[in-house]
Amino acid sequence: MPQVSPGIPGKRSRSATTCQLGFSRPVTTKPMIAMPFHPSNTYTIEELKKNPQDILRKVEKDAIELTGNPNLNLTCKYHDGDIYVDSGNIGGCSGGCFENLVAAADILDGADVGNDVFGLTVYPDSQPTNLELIKNGAAAKLMKAGNLRTVYGRGKITR
Would you list the domain boundaries of the chain? Predict the structure, then answer.
């Protein structure tokens, strides 16, 4: 059972609460994809690859009901026996941490994602993370690779 206790915010933290989770067995995660129009609308990549047409049809139907736009077309992303992805995001409170974005910068160093077919958006989890990415050169690597880099607005830079 998780234990939540009040804590004291540290120099770089944004919260005064800590939560410790205890697991009786190792936790494994699988690569996942968030589908429109909410980050909780997720599928494992394995599941999506096994059943792409049904999942895309369901997500498309739900999206049309949600938006009222009958012209939404997600099933067109599946052709030639594969799923074609036209955009990706690395960011937010979990994906946009310093370590993840430095790793992405190293992977993309010298590459080019600016091909008008695939768009990559990267946004750090906080202003302090953004500043560190600028200081260590990771931000420049990401920008040279052709992604649209935005700044997440949480946290202030303190000296």
Answer: 31-79
